[in-house]
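[recover] target loaded
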C-alpha cells in the first residue's frame, strides 16, 4: 500500500433475504400500507452513499473519499527535551507545519539541532535549509547531529527553497525538514524585475512579497506534506510592532503562516533574576557570575492534542552548552 494513502474499508453487502425485506418495506411505505420507518430509510441512504463513494473514488484521480475512522493519529517527533515534549503533548507533529519564532539569541537553532539529532537516532531522515548561512557544524555535532547523514540545503530565492520542500515531500524522502529561517528568504521579484531580470535596488518597494509567496506555498504543499507524513519546522524572526501604543514583538509573514501552523512556539529570554549563575571565589570572596539566561518557551497556538495553548516552560540556557539537559 502506498505510504500515506488511507486504507479503504471493506463493505459488507446485505444478504439477499435482507435486501428483499428492505425493498418490500419501502414498497409498502410508498403504497401507504405501513408508516415510514426511519431506520429503513437511513439504511437505504447508507447503501446509496456507499455506491456514490465507490463511484467517486473510481472517477477522481487524486482525491480519496472514505469514512473518518480510517484517519490515523499524527506521529510525533521528540524535541529531545522531556519538559518541552511534555508541554507540546509529545513533540512536533508529522504531516504538518510547526513554527518556532523569537528574537535573536533565544535558542531557536539549539532547538532545531536537538530535534535533528533526536530524529536521526529514531532512524529517520532530516533536512536542514540554511537561508541565513548560520549553520554551525561544531554546535550541531555537540547536540548529536550526524552531519554525514544530514541533508544540507542552501538556495538564493524563496521560490527555490519552497520548490525543494515540495519536491522532497512529493517524493516522500524526508521525515523532518527545518527551514532556518522564514525571514531569511528573498522572493525572486524582490531581487529582480522585468523579463530581462534586471537587478533591483534596495530602495525599490517589495511590500508583502514574502507573505504572498508563503500563502501560495501552503496552498501547493500542504497535501504533499500530509501524504509524506513529514514534519516541517519553520523558524521565524520577530519584528517590533510600532503600530500600537506599546512596542511588542510580533511574527510577520502573513496570515497564511499563522493559519497553516498547527503548533506555534514563541521563545524569549526571561528576567535576569531567573538566569543561571555560577559562584566563583576571587580573593577569598564569593562572586556570582551569570553563565546563561532563562529560556522561556510559550505555546502561542495549538491545534494538536495534549497541548494547551498558553502553556509556558522556563529552562536554563548555558552560554557554552545550550539548554541545560538536567532540566529535561
Amino acid at each position: 500500500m502506498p505510504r500515506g494513502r488511507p486504507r479503504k474499508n471493506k463493505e459488507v453487502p446485505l444478504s439477499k433475504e435482507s435486501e428483499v425485506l428492505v425493498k418490500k418495506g419501502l414498497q409498502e411505505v410508498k403504497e401507504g400500507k405501513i408508516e415510514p420507518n426511519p431506520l429503513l430509510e437511513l439504511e437505504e441512504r447508507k447503501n446509496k452513499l456507499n455506491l456514490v463513494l465507490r463511484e467517486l473514488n473510481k472517477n477522481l484521480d487524486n482525491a480519496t473519499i472514505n469514512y473518518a475512522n480510517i484517519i490515523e493519529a499524527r506521529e510525533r517527533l521528540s524535541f529531545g527535551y522531556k519538559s518541552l515534549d511534555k508541554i507540546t503533548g509529545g513533540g512536533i507533529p508529522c504531516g504538518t507545519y510547526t513554527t518556532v519564532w523569537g528574537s535573536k539569541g533565544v535558542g531557536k537553532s539549539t532547538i532545531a539541532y536537538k530535534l535533528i539529532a533526536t530524529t536521526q537516532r529514531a532512524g529517520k531522515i532530516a533536512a536542514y535549509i540554511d537561508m541565513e548561512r548560520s549553520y554551525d557544524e561544531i554546535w550541531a555535532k555537540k547536540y548529536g547531529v550526524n552531519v554525514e547523514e544530514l541533508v544540507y540545503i542552501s538556495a538564493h530565492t524563496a521560490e527555490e527553497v519552497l520548490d525543494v520542500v515540495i519536491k522532497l515531500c512529493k517524493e516522500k524522502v524526508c521525515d523532518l525538514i527545518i527551514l532556518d529561517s522564514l525571514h531569511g528568504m528573498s522572493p525572486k521579484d524582490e531581487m529582480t524585475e522585468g523579463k530581462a531580470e534586471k537587478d533591483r535596488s534596495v530602495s525599490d518597494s517589495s511590500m508583502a512579497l514574502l507573505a504572498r509567496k508563503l500563502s501560495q506555498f501552503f496552498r501547493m504543499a500542504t497535501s504533499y506534506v500530509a501524504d509524506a507524513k513529514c514534519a516541517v519546522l519553520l523558524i521565524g524572526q520577530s519584528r517590533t510592532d510600532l503600530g500600537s501604543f506599546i512596542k511588542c514583538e510580533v511574527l510577520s509573514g502573513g496570515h497564511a503562516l499563522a493559519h497553516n501552523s498547527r503548533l506555534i512556539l514563541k521563545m524569549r529570554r526571561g528576567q535576569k533574576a531567573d538566569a543561571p549563575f555560577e559562584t566563583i571565589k576571587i580573593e577569598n570572596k564569593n562572586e556570582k557570575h551569570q553563565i546563561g539566561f532563562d529560556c522561556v518557551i510559550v505555546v502561542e497556538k495549538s491545534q494538536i492534542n495534549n497541548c494547551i495553548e498558553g502553556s509556558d516552560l522556563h529552562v536554563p540556557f548555558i552560554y557554552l552548552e545550550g539548554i541545560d539537559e538536567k532540566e529535561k
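[recover] notes: The mean pLDDT is 86.
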